[in-house]
Design goal:
Mean pLDDT: 83
Number of strands: 2
Helix content: over 70%
Order of helices and strands: HHHHHHHHHEEHH
Structural class: mainly alpha
Strand order of the largest sheet: 1-2
Radius of gyration: 24 Å
Strand content: under 5%
CATH architecture of one domain: Orthogonal Bundle
CATH class of one domain: Mainly Alpha
Largest sheet: 2 strands, antiparallel
């Protein structure tokens, strides 16, 4: 048998194995989704979204969980997005290439692959014991911000690298400064890819459980964090409060984890319904990222 025929057979076998592995993964995923939907779809309803957790499975809801998820995601975005994008711009556009920057780049790449529970242990030592933030929304948001920060930095750098150098050169030729070139030319050109990376990082954070369990996030909360904006009807003025960032919280993954650990069968249906909601949010965020990437590629 000639080497050419052998190469063709090996290539055909590799294609078959790759296709089989892909189909196997899709079939398993489809089976899991069908099983979850069949168990939890009947629990989905207005009462499920507006009810607090309860010891009775038929009365339990995810009100405090999805509100807490919104609080955590907003807090995470406040810290992670500006720091991540700013660090990516500095590392790609301003930092000199030397051993120090190479060391930082290697560590950022390594941090992107660190297990999430390690960030939980770090947050437990720094934010809980050292800074005394307790089991608050702020502590949880800071931990998740650390978790997704390397991902945002790497995606920002890749987005800036994808911008053609001719755009920078044309801007410099017209007399623009470096910052004017970055702000008005480079960032708009790479904005779609940067936003895609940010959304994918946030979709990872929304499903994380281990870091929040490590810091002791509560599994049963029959109340919501303090409303940041309150309107006084008697004296017409708006009161803004940051107390909500220091209140205890729970999130959808932790609530699902709590229900799964319960022995009653009714809580398994509640957990399945919570998984459907979490999957829907995650898939919507990933779909938005794919759409933004497509629009950006079509534009540039």
């Amino acid at each position: 048998m000639s080497s050419r025929k052998l190469d063709k057979k090996v290539d055909s076998a590799f294609k078959f194995v790759g296709l089989a592995a892909t189909l196997f993964g899709l079939v398993v995923l489809a089976a899991l989704v069908v099983d979850v939907v069949s168990d939890g779809y009947h629990r989905l309803g207005w009462d499920f979204f507006t009810s607090f957790p309860s010891r009775k499975p038929e009365q339990a809801g995810i009100f405090s969980a999805w509100v807490g998820t919104i609080w955590i995601m907003i807090t995470t975005a406040i810290f992670a997005i500006p720091l991540g994008i700013g660090s990516g711009i500095y590392m790609e556009e301003y930092a000199k290439r030397n051993r120090w920057t190479d060391f930082i780049e290697i560590n950022i790449a390594n941090l992107a692959g660190v297990p999430s529970v390690i960030y939980g242990i770090l947050g437990l030592g720094v934010f809980i014991r050292l800074m005394h933030l307790d089991r608050s929304v702020l502590a949880g948001g800071l931990i998740l911000a650390l978790l997704i920060l390397p991902v945002i930095i790497l995606s920002t750098r890749e987005a800036l690298r994808s911008v053609p150098s001719s755009i920078r050169e044309a801007s410099y030729a017209l007399g623009a400064t470096k910052w004017q070139t970055i702000r008005h030319q480079v960032l708009p050109a790479g904005f779609g890819n940067i936003l895609t990376g940010v959304i994918l990082a946030m979709s990872r954070a929304i499903g994380e459980t281990a870091p929040l369990i490590t810091i002791g996030a509560l599994t049963y909360i029959p109340f919501l964090p303090t409303n940041p904006v309150a309107f006084n009807k008697e004296i017409p003025y708006i009161h803004v409060s940051l107390q909500g960032f220091f209140d205890p919280f729970t999130v959808l993954p932790i609530q699902i984890f709590n229900w799964v650990s319960r022995p009653q069968k009714g809580f398994l249906a509640d957990a399945a319904a919570g998984i459907i909601v979490l999957l829907t949010i995650t898939l919507a965020m990933n779909a938005a990222a794919i759409y933004l990437r497509y629009k950006n590629q079509k534009r540039w």
